[in-house]
Amino acid sequence: MRIRGLLARIWAGLSILLVLAVILFLFVFIFLRGGSVITWDFLSQPPSGAVLGEEGGILPAITGSLAFTLTATVLGGLPAIATALYLVFFCKSRRLGSLIHTILQCISGIPSIVLGLFAYSFFVRDLNWGRCVLSASMALAIMILPFIEIHAEKAFREIPRGFVESSQALGCAPYYTVFHVVLPSCRGELISGILLGACYAMGATAPMIFTGAVAFATSPKSLMQPAMALPLHLYLLIAQGTTSLDRAYGTAFVMMALILVSNLLVMIYTERSHRRWIQR
Amino acid sequence: MAKTANRFFMLLIGSLTVLAILSLAFVIWFVAKEALPLFREVSPAAFFLGTRWMPVDFGNGMSFGIFNFIMGTLAVSLTGMILALLVGLGASLYLSCAATQRVRTLLYPVIDLLAGIPSVVYGFVGLMVLKPVFIRAGVKTGLCVLAAGIVLAVMLLPYLISASSETMLKARARCLPPAMALGISRWDAAAGIVLPASARNILMSAGLAVGRAMGETMAVMMVMGNANLFPKLLGKGESIAALIALEMGTAVADSTHYHALYAAGFALMILLFVINLGISALRSRLLRRGGI
Fold it and tell me: Average per-residue pLDDT in chain A?
């Protein structure tokens, strides 16, 4: 082996070790520091006391984050999958397809803070919805739409063309083909794309600072009221400085645990349902 | 019955697609509409090249120059990108040329975990871990462009690794067996053949990742120090995204300040758009030339 190969080998080995070490460090760091903060009260109580994070827990932030994420995933996921279906199976004009792709690319390039700006001016101010779950979720939905679309489109394109053509040749209507051939055969990838999109929405802070997330609120009961959210809660705790940093680790713990669990679920599910057409 | 259902379904797909595309196009139009009134009051040259940012009149007049913020954005993205390339390419080389299929299916989801971590958490860990290190190293507040670049690099890793290892896997499948049949050792072939063969595609995925880096708000904002200075590696700087996040809450609606923030966002969008355009032009040129 010449010197260049040796160097490459060392470089590759060190790099992958560094990457894995960083991942391990991030989770262990947060879990160790945050673990002592997590009690049942922390998870099940609303915040109390004059200063955020001093007493009480983060229940409204958890429920608020769930509300934001769920609304955004429904609002962004459905059009995203419809667009992907249209592009892969129904779009006949190549020019229209590339126009849609260009727009999707532009939007996926828009920084999330600009989306927050847009949602603030348009939904909160112009449409007069006020700061509420719906306004912020719209911003998040626009943010994750291209993300989910790209995942879904990739999954659809990986389905063997013969599957779809056979179904069409048997005279199946498009909706029958989609629901009985296309969607079942890439269910795993589709669900993983949607869940990753949901994680992305849950962790995003920038789009909801001005549009719906607030420092103190009860659990949201309707879409038209503001709510607390985990990432904003963490940001505010850090911004306050030293007194609330312990609690900040707790909030970070909850978010990291949610990410880890949902990723594990996706992993197990996709592993089991992966490429069913190859096995049968 | 089936016919009605089918017609309804096609209508649903069509209208959802139209809805998605129209609302996305609307966002672009809206941001442009809110940005343009600024240029009635501030000349584009003063906006893009000015270094004074004084959105509220304290007696010296207002000025809106985002040159330092543009440079800050570029500096932190570039730093992050270089660091991410340094580690990400090595890791992809390992994943594509050395790892077995089983190791790969195990490691990919683990690396993808990085993409799921919220950016505030990155910023938080950056503050808790990097800041003390940089203070000990002699940086006064511990907040600097390099620290933000390191945080950003970790955030970029999953995108870079998944894109470049995919390219390298293709190159490896094509190049490695013949090279090894010629008696070239695995790692010589990896460094001398697989890496150069996938260089162009890696360049393109790096370009896309730069776009992601420039739009990143929270993590960069928390670690970069946020001061209107020309960015130095160990000095403070401020990115456009951070500027918007920090000042939007205080800007009066429809004031010059408000339009200036929109214009800064619009400038960021244009910058990203130009980069994306350049990449896709490069890609189609390479495709025509028969690159990988």
Answer: 83
SS3 annotation, B216-244: CCHHHHHHHECCCCCCCCCCCECCHHHHH
| Structure confidence at residue B155 (pLDDT) | 92
Instruction: Report if pTM > 0.90.
Output: no
Chain B residues within an 8 Å CB radius of A117: 31, 244, 248, 261-262, 265
Tell me whether residues A204 and B222 touch, CB distance under 8 A.
no
**Chain A contact for B148 (CB, 8 A cutoff):** no
ipTM over 0.90? The verdict is: no
Whether the pLDDT of residue A141 is over 80: the answer is: yes
Q: How far apart are CA A146 and CA B210, in angstroms?
A: 17
Amino acid sitting at position B200:
R
Q: How many CB pairs under 8 A join A and B?
A: 266
Q: Determine, yes or no, domain membership for A146.
A: yes
User: What pLDDT shows up at residue A54?
Assistant: 64
Which of A95, A94, A207, A229 is closest to A145 using CA atoms? A207
User: What domains sit in chain B, N to C, each tagged with a CATH number?
Assistant: 68-289 (1.10.3720.10)
Disruptive mutation site among B73, B124, B194 for chain A (greatest number of A CBs within 10 Å): B124
Query: What gap in Å lies between CA A204 and CA A200, rounded to an integer?
Result: 6
CATH number where A111 lies: 1.10.3720.10
**Closest chain A C-alpha to B90 CA, distance in angstroms:** 4
Q: Which helix (H) or strand (E) holds A93?
A: none
Has residue A156 been placed in a domain? yes
Would you say residue A193 lies in a domain? yes
Instruction: Give the gap in angstroms from C-alpha A11 to the nearest C-alpha of chain B.
Output: 6
Asked if A18 and B248 come within 8 Å (Cβ–Cβ), the reply is no
Tokens of B117: 């971590």
Burial class (CB in 10 A: 0-12, 13-18, 19+), A241: exposed
State how many domains chain A has.
Answer: 1
d(CA A175, CA A274) in angstroms, rounded, equals 23
Q: Is pLDDT at B134 greater than 90 in this prediction?
A: no
For residue A74, pLDDT beyond 90: yes
Asked whether residue A249 is domain-assigned, the answer is: no
Min Cα distance A120 → chain B (Å) is 10
Q: Distance, in angstroms, between B244 CA and closest chain A CA?
A: 7
State the average pLDDT over residues A273-277: 57
Q: Say if the Cβ atoms of A173 and B12 lie within 8 Å.
A: no
- Domain holding A156, by residue range, is 63-214+262-279
In chain A, which residues have their Cβ closer than 8 Å to the Cβ of B104?
none
